[in-house]
Amino acid sequence: MELSEDVLTDVVKRLRRAQGQVGGLIQMIESGRDCRDVLTQLAAVSRALDRAGFKLIASGLEQCVSDGSAQGRADREQLEKLFLSLA
Questions:
Q1: 9-12: long-range contacts (C-beta < 8 A, 24 or more apart)?
Q2: What pTM was computed for the model?
Q3: DSSP string, 35-84
Q4: What b/e sequence results for 26-54 when a residue is b if at least 16 CB atoms lie within 10 Å of its CB, and e otherwise?
């Protein structure tokens, strides 16, 4: 499975944003910030990672659906399992 440059760019952008959020989260914990603030930020990081994963899987599924080959069907089944692991 090969992903388009647009998809990869978007996923990397999302992951870099999550990376920054994780750094901020660590600083919040180390500085003793309020638990609610920490949990809110943690949820934001989790959503950012989920969205990056879903973007990759959705793009892969789209490729597999358009490819009618046996390998495409096998890839699709594997991607569906990955999708369910994120859900």
A1: 10/55, 11/52, 11/55, 11/56
A2: 0.68
A3: HHHHHHHHHHHHHHHHHHHHHHHHHHHHHHHH--SHHHHHHHHHHHHHHH
A4: eebeeeeeeeeeeeebeeebeebbebbbb
Summarised one tens digit per residue, pLDDT across range 52-62 is 888 887 787 66
Rounded CA-CA distance 62/44 in Å is: 27
Residue 33, φ and ψ in degrees, nearest 5: -65, 160
Q: Tokens 């609610």 appear where?
A: 36
Which tokens in the block code for residue 64? Answer: 């597999």
What amino acid is encoded at 16 in this protein? R
Contact 1, 64 (CB under 8 A): yes
Mean pLDDT estimate for the chain = 82
